[in-house]
Amino acid sequence: MRECLANATRHADATRVEVSVAVHDETVIVTVDDDGVGLPTRPRRASGTRNLEERATRRGGTFELSTRAEGGTRARWAAPVPAPERSTL
């Protein structure tokens, strides 16, 4: 979430950012929407977004950047929540 908020601040020229954190079907989903300038015509993965994608993939999840219909960008990071370990007592 921190990387997505930093990107909205540094690159998007956003005036509004909305953050959602949810757990659905044992998957945690973090969504960050901004009303900024949107993605460039030829987006590239910079170190921060590449890192987000790699961390999601290592956990069996996904990271996606997309342009919102109303303008701005949506970043969505999702990964399975590990099952808690059971005590053997």
TrEMBL record:
Keywords: Kinase, Transferase, Two-component regulatory system
A Pfam family: HATPase_c
Region (Disordered): 39-89
InterPro entries (alphabetical): HATPase_C_sf, HATPase_dom, Sensor_HK_TwoCompSys
Keyword Kinase applies: yes
Domain Histidine kinase/HSP90-like ATPase: 2-65
Classification via PANTHER family: NITRATE/NITRITE SENSOR PROTEIN NARX-RELATED (PTHR24421), OXYGEN SENSOR HISTIDINE KINASE RESPONSE REGULATOR DOST (PTHR24421:SF56)
Stated name of the protein: Histidine kinase/HSP90-like ATPase domain-containing protein
Lineage: Bacteria, Bacillati, Actinomycetota, Actinomycetes, Micrococcales
